[in-house]
Write a structure and sequence with these properties.
Blueprint: H1 9-18, E1 22-27, E2 30-34, H2 36-42, H3 54-58, H4 60-66, E3 71-78, E4 84-96, E5 99-108, H5 110-132, E6 136-140, E7 146-149, H6 151-157, H7 161-164, H8 182-186, H9 192-198, E8 203-205, E9 213-219, E10 228-238, E11 244-253, H10 255-282, H11 286-382, H12 389-402, H13 404-436, E12 445-447, H14 449-459, H15 461-464, E13 468-474, E14 480-482, H16 484-500, E15 508-517, E16 520-527, H17 534-537, H18 557-567, E17 571-577, E18 581-589, H19 594-598
Parallel strand pairs: 13-15
Antiparallel strand pairs: 1-2, 1-5, 3-4, 4-5, 6-7, 6-11, 8-9, 9-10, 10-11, 12-14, 15-16, 16-18, 17-18
Domain PAC: 213-266
Keywords: ATP-binding, Coiled coil, Kinase, Nucleotide-binding, Phosphoprotein, Transferase, Two-component regulatory system
Protein name: histidine kinase
Length: 611
């Protein structure tokens, strides 16, 4: 940029103000000028810059930046709402009025920086999912380098993740050249004809993943790994703007299936050879020709039946894999809840022992105290019979000093309050045991739902008491046949969610209703919190869906609750209005059917259906 002279400073500022890119003139830690394009971007009036230094307006990062020589970097500018706008800043030294200044051109790159931040969060979540996925999985980045590789993929390929992550030629050890992965095709770097040649026709667009592909590929023996067939499936990874930033590919060992197919092919070839042989022989005997034709037709029919069976088994295998993944996720969450219940029951048991003998000793202490107070009253009554006047005066002074009347009254109040405190602790301990049901068997039981609701309310009281008032509207309910600890988990999830739905700074209310109707019971948990939008309400039972910040929720609570209610042959309904509140309604049968009551209560049930 040309040097600015003192004589034409106004004209120079006017010219800079016409530039559509943000421009700043900086002297030391002072901001001398900002053009209109920059002011519009950060939402400031020119008058707002008067009397403020660059450190106060933009922070230390700009000061460190401007004290150097020519420089270029991305810097944040704080906005009034607490967010930042990011600028790609290019700094050049210049002169203004004979003084050294810095001329900074500022290009708004906020959208790009936020997209990169979102992409980093997505990659972190993708890493966690891939590592726990039981199917061999790897990920390619923009440069077609392998960025992720889970343990299952290491086992299938026989290659260590440390040896292949960061490379674009890791497949060479397996006979796959650069650019021949399905993931490369998904990212648009390989033409379809080349891949069809590489996969010998066993290559097709994915019917389930948009922009994805599937294929069957053969890996020859390498190292300690024997030759094997793999089913590969690849799909694109997109950023928040919908641009493809990478691809994910899964590998499933189908060697056994291919062996079956090879056996069928051999059988087919053997059948054709047999037919050819019989055809030559049947040229002289029509009757034998007819028998051979019938035999060939029978063999072909058997072959088609086998082929259909293999196809059916393959479909069942994919379905079983999906169900296994979901069951594994739910088993992990159930195990966590069971561990928490076991811990709560253990703590309750440990507290019960000292509370028991404290409570017993307290009764004896009350009797002893009554006797001591009676003896003290007798001493006070006999004080007038003491002949020594000095002794009487001394006792009266001592009685006045310790305020005996107040002491007798206060010690009884202290005993009463202490007894109430001990009874409160015993009630909390009992509610913990009722909530966890560790002492009970894992079989279906006849229980009082109100007792489960009360114990759960007591357990989650600390989550609710600072945010909402609990209103109980109980009807007359019969005992129902259920798995009480699992229903208590449902109650806990719904009550805690209701408490978390309360807006900040406003105390709300949570209403718990119960009614009996036509061989069923109905339990409603209603709050007057923030409510849910329709698009959110449609997804609340999906595993891992949550509206809470990262690290504040797993997204499994309502999904598992749905599975528990479904296992009880009941149903769960939800209604919600934004700004008004939400109501969850549980419908449960009083008695379970024979199949339900005989089933294993520890097997989790997924939320395959939605209300």
């Amino acid at each position: 940029m040309d040097t600015l002279q003192a004589g034409d400073s106004r004209q120079s500022f006017l010219l800079l103000d016409l530039i559509e890119v943000g421009v700043l003139v900086i002297e030391g830690e002072s901001l001398l000028f900002a053009n209109s394009a920059f002011l519009r971007t950060v939402g400031l009036e020119r008058s707002a810059l008067q009397g403020h230094g660059l450190r106060e307006l933009a922070g230390e990062s700009w000061i460190d930046f401007t004290l150097g020589q020519s420089w270029a970097d991305a810097l944040p500018w704080p906005m009034a709402d607490g967010s930042d706008r990011w600028f790609e800043v290019s700094l050049q030294p210049s002169q203004f009025g004979g003084r050294p200044v810095q001329i900074a051109t500022c290009t708004d790159v906020t959208t790009r920086m936020r997209a990169e931040s979102a992409e980093a969060s997505m990659l972190q979540m993708l890493t966690e999912i891939i590592e726990s996925y039981p199917v061999g999985t790897f990920v390619l980045d923009r440069e077609h380098r392998i960025s992720h590789c889970n343990r299952a993929c290491e086992i299938i390929t026989g290659l260590s993740a440390n040896d292949i992550i960061g490379r674009d030629d890791a497949g060479l050890a397996l006979g796959v050249a650069r650019g021949e992965w399905l993931a490369d095709k998904v990212m648009g770097s390989v033409d379809e004809a080349s891949l069809r040649q590489r996969y010998q026709g066993r290559f097709w667009p994915s019917p389930t993943a948009e922009g994805g592909y599937e294929a069957e590929m053969f890996f020859p023996a390498h190292g300690k790994q024997s030759a094997r067939w793999l089913h590969a499936a690849a799909a694109p990874l997109r950023d928040a703007t919908g641009q493809i930033v990478g691809a994910i590919e899964t590998l499933i060992d189908i060697t056994a299936r291919k062996a079956v197919e090879a056996e069928l092919q051999n059988a087919h070839q053997a059948a054709e050879s047999l037919v050819a042989e019989r055809t030559r022989e049947l040229q002289s005997a029509k009757s034998e020709l007819e028998r051979d034709i019938a035999r060939r037709e029978e063999l072909e029919l058997t072959m088609h039946e086998h082929l259909r069976e293999v196809t059916r088994l393959n479909s069942e295998l994919h379905l079983a894999q999906d169900q296994l993944i979901q069951s594994q996720q739910q088993l992990v969450q159930n195990e966590k809840l069971a561990s928490i219940g076991q811990l709560a029951a253990g703590v309750a048991h440990e507290i019960n022992n000292p509370i028991g003998y404290v409570f017993s000793n307290f009764g004896s202490l009350q009797l002893y105290l009554d006797d001591l107070l009676g003896l003290l009253d007798a001493y006070v009554a006999a004080e007038g019979m003491i002949g020594d006047e000095a002794l009487r005066a001394s006792l009266a002074a001592l009685r006045e000093k310790i305020d005996l009347a107040y002491l007798k009254e206060d010690v009884l109040d202290l005993m009463r309050e202490s007894r109430e405190g001990i009874e409160r602790v015993r009630k909390i301990v009992q509610d913990l045991k009722d909530f966890s049901h560790v002492d009970a068997s894992a079989d279906w039981q006849w229980v009082d739902l109100h007792r489960g609701l009360e114990s759960t309310l007591n357990v989650v009281n600390n989550e609710i008491k600072y945010k909402a008032d609990v209103i109980r509207d109980y009807g007359v309910l019969p005992q129902i046949q259920c798995l009480p600890s699992q229903l208590n988990q449902v109650f806990m999830n719904l009550l805690v969610n209701a408490a978390h739905a309360m807006p900040e700074g406003r105390r709300g209310s949570i209403t718990v209703r119960s009614r009996a109707e036509d061989g069923q019971v109905r339990v409603e948990i209603e709050d007057n919190g923030s409510g849910m939008a329709p698009e959110v309400m449609q997804r609340i039972f999906d595993p891992f869906f949550t509206t809470k910040p990262v690290g504040k929720g797993t997204g499994l609570g309502l999904s598992l609750s749905f599975g528990i209610i479904r296992k009880h042959h009941g149903r769960i309904e939800v209604s919600s209005t934004p700004g008004v509140g939400t109501c969850f309604t549980l419908h449960l049968p009083v008695q379970q059917t024979g199949d339900a009551a005989d089933s294993d209560p520890d097997i989790p049930t997924g939320a395959e259906e939605r209300p």
